[in-house]
Amino acid sequence: MSWTDERIETLRTLWEKGLTASQIAEKLGNVSRNAVIGKAHRLGLKARPSPVKADSDGTPRDTAKKAAAPPAAPKPKPEAAAQAATPAPRPAPETKAPAPAAPKPMQTRPTIPAAPAKPRAPGEKVTLLDLSDKICKWPIGHPGEPDFQFCGRPVNPSFPYCLAHCAEAYQAQLPRDRNRPSRAPMPPLPRVR
């Protein structure tokens, strides 16, 4: 879609009439609301007040609706508005509602014993499809190579790896005390002559 002189002039006239960007886009055809807003901005057309922002009295502004809306009905007198705003008294219930029952204690699901990890024969390849929660997921080799596999030994409880690979993957942090510096001091740099 290209903005011809005719389309630009139509945009200008519809914008001056106060039509919304959506309405202008609909009349022009084959153009989005955002394209209309962008072109109006680039042409330097008069900006419109945002319908989201409120006037000083707190009512939302919407110039397109105000221009198209019929004249407003006269406002009611303050006494009538106060009477209309007070809610009518509710009739008292004839019967008392039963008290809510005490909450039932939470029931826990029975734990199903996990099937033991099936022992792997030495040298048996463990592929991605063979992995489960009970098998060590430590990768062995490079994923692109044909001999790539996973460890496959039984896992250390609540870890994804066996005991040997947990020792490699996780290192215990020593507690920091006031006497131990946070890191070792750097040795002095050699002087360059």
TrEMBL record:
<protein>
    <submittedName>
        <fullName>GcrA cell cycle regulator</fullName>
    </submittedName>
</protein>
<feature type="region of interest" description="Disordered">
    <location>
        <begin position="40"/>
        <end position="125"/>
    </location>
</feature>
<feature type="compositionally biased region" description="Pro residues">
    <location>
        <begin position="184"/>
        <end position="193"/>
    </location>
</feature>
<dbReference type="Pfam" id="PF07750">
    <property type="entry name" value="GcrA"/>
</dbReference>
<feature type="region of interest" description="Disordered">
    <location>
        <begin position="173"/>
        <end position="193"/>
    </location>
</feature>
<feature type="compositionally biased region" description="Basic and acidic residues">
    <location>
        <begin position="54"/>
        <end position="65"/>
    </location>
</feature>
<dbReference type="InterPro" id="IPR011681">
    <property type="entry name" value="GcrA"/>
</dbReference>
